[in-house]
Design a protein that fits this description.
The protein is of the alpha+beta class and about 600 residues long. The chain contains twelve helices and 16 strands. The site of copper (II) ion has 4 residues, from helix 8. Copper (II) ion (CU) binds next to helix 8.
């Protein structure tokens, strides 16, 4: 197996010199392997919840302050659910935040033709409202996974082992925690009368970041409680730095509870292409570590800085109760590198690309929580990168709510408004590490040494849409405004919108978008100024017929057009390059985005 083979000669030495020394922990005996690895079929709804295995069950819990909810509270909660539904027909309704799913209506997320099922429904119990941790609680400082020491690794492994050893009727068990992602993201909560349910839209909308922040928050507190350490903090995978540019070694020891056997073997440390490619889908041979880092650095700059100047570009588009699923879109970071890395870690030889490569199984890999640690860190960082980079103030975002089990097995209803301040409110922060992607070093292809010809691309007429994107196409798209002033550019970001993207969500889909890219052989990539970004779909494993989905891709291009010297042009040539899959594209337009 390639995971055991030495690094290829071309990259091995350079990799060793470029990356930090291996932090592979010592091998463990087979007896230390978790029982979780032999997964049993998941059982349906549990009749009762167990929460007795912690050594510190008597610890006070902030969420206990309200006490368990009464039947009346539950009915009120359900009333708001139905209120949301009824407001669909009330055009005067102003507030319409997404409500958490009704757990009593959870059903198996997947029922395949072959009779295969995946029941990832959580145990069902009364809800309480979320309370912020006490200001007196110690901070939890999340470390970079490639920098942790042996004492930390021991603690983390012990906590994960204890979580994996919890029984199936304990909602804090690793299996149940992994199922949180499956249930929310794969259609286990399709609710009659609510279209779409919050379930289907954790991805592809503005609730992506807060949902995953709460997910990590509770997962981390459960681990901390299991080892009686109120300072325990999850590590983050620092994939945005040259030193963190491979799967952290602590996850790669087959004898560790942090290991998951279902990953792409080539991408493990020691595999044939272990360097993280934030622009994954490249089928060519691995880049040198230096070239890979330069590509990754430019991806990060586009996704965090130049392409994410407006809130909806970074977070994704609004989704309110009653919105139709079609038409919503992911934010920059959710697509790339979040989505790319899910697929990059998953085993692509498997039908469903488990574990990380499919949203139903991603939570089964301990690396998932480390990956999302860095995604969450990016939310904090984005707010420091320039003016107007703030959270939404729309009550429909602030009051959107989710359900999670806490460290005391209480089912907690959490609103986005309580999740906005990691440090001051949630008592969580990230170990400071050097940020090396703030500035772009991209150059236009026409100016780069690799360009030998300057050949115009053959153009497809806008009237030809919708069309199946099965080969690269270029379209001249009119720009309603040109040569805008600096103030106008700050007020509104120029965007290219790829409309009516029809995909099968059960499949890996990726296509790239470039502007004014000459036809000189290789299409523009992340290192070229012409490259605007990518569409990425991480597979959802869903019931047959439930996977057809229509969405849009919106990319900020104000800086890009300036850098290309194309700000005065009447049209821009948009090139779409399919990388994986053949989505249907509804159309293209240039627009201006204020928020
Ligand atoms: Cu994810």
């Amino acid at each position: 197996m390639s995971s055991l083979s030495p690094l290829p000669a071309a990259t091995g030495a350079a990799t060793a010199a470029f990356l930090r020394p291996s932090l592979l922990p010592p091998k463990k005996s087979a007896s230390q392997l978790s029982a979780y690895k032999s997964r049993k079929p998941y059982s349906p709804h549990f009749a009762r919840i167990s929460c007795k295995t912690s050594s510190s069950d008597k610890e006070p819990n902030n969420n206990d302050q309200t006490g368990p909810t009464t039947r009346r509270d539950i009915l009120i909660g359900m009333g708001s659910l139905y209120g949301a539904a009824s407001s669909l027909s009330d055009p005067t309704a102003l507030a319409n935040p997404l409500q958490p799913p009704d757990l009593s209506k959870c059903h198996p997320a997947i029922k395949g033709d072959a009779g295969d099922t995946a029941d990832c429904c959580p145990p069902f119990s009364d809800q309480i409202e979320f309370k912020l941790p006490s200001p007196k609680e110690p901070m939890r400082i999340r470390p970079a996974a490639h920098l942790v020491d042996k004492a930390y690794i021991d603690k983390y492994e012990k906590a994960i082992s204890l979580m994996k050893a919890l029984p199936d009727d304990d909602p804090r068990s690793f299996k149940n925690q992994a199922n949180v992602h499956c249930a929310y993201c794969n259609g286990a909560y399709d609710q009659v009368g609510i279209t779409p349910s919050v379930a289907l839209q954790i991805h592809f909308s503005w609730i992506f970041f807060p949902f995953h922040r709460y997910y990590l928050y509770f997962f981390e507190r459960i681990l901390g409680k299991l080892i009686d350490d109120p300072t325990f903090a999850l590590p983050f995978w620092n994939w945005d730095s040259p030193d963190g540019m491979q799967i952290p070694a602590i996850f790669a020891d087959p004898a560790s509870p942090l290991y998951d056997a279902i990953r792409a073997p080539d991408h493990l440390p020691g595999g044939s292409s272990p360097l993280v490619d934030l622009d994954w889908s490249r089928s060519a041979a691995s880049l040198t570590p230096e070239a890979q880092w330069q590509s990754n650095r430019d991806v990060m700059h586009t996704q965090m800085v130049s392409g994410a100047k407006k809130r909806t570009l970074f977070f994704g588009t609004p989704l309110k109760a009653g919105d139709l699923a079609d038409g919503n879109g992911q934010g920059t970071l959710e697509r790339t590198p979040h989505g790319n890395l899910h697929i990059w870690v998953g085993d692509l030889t498997r039908e469903y690309k488990e574990d990380m490569g499919n949203l139903y199984s991603a939570g089964r890999d301990p690396l998932f929580y480390c990956h999302h640690g860095n995604v969450d860190r990016m939310w904090d960082l984005w707010k420091t990168l320039g003016p107007r980079r703030t959270d939404f103030t729309d009550p429909d975002w602030l009051d959107a709510a989710f359900l999670f089990y806490d460290e005391n097995c209480k089912l907690v209803r959490c609103k986005i408004r309580d999740s906005l301040d990691n440090e001051k409110k949630l008592k969580t922060d990230y170990e400071p590490v050097r940020i090396q992607w703030r500035h772009s070093k991209r150059v236009p292809k026409t100016k780069s040494a690799t360009t030998t010809t300057k050949k115009k691309r053959e153009l497809t007429d806008l009237s030809k849409f919708p069309l199946v994107l099965n080969k690269a196409i270029s379209v001249a798209v009119p720009r309603p405004r040109k040569n805008r002033s600096k103030a106008e550019k700050e007020e509104e970001e120029e965007v290219v919108v790829v409309k009516g993207i029809e995909i099968d969500r059960s499949q890996v889909i990726k296509f790239d978008v470039a502007l004014n890219d000459d036809d000189d052989g290789a299409p523009a990539g992340p290192r070229d100024t012409e490259f605007a970004g990518s569409f990425v779909n991480v597979p959802h494993r869903q019931k047959p017929g439930a996977s057809k989905f229509k969405t849009a891709l919106t990319l900020g291009i104000t800086d890009l057009l300036e850098d290309l010297g194309a700000d005065g042009d009447d049209t821009v040539v948009v090139t779409l390059v399919p990388k994986v899959g053949e989505p249907v594209i509804g159309g293209l337009k240039i627009d201006y985005l204020a928020d």
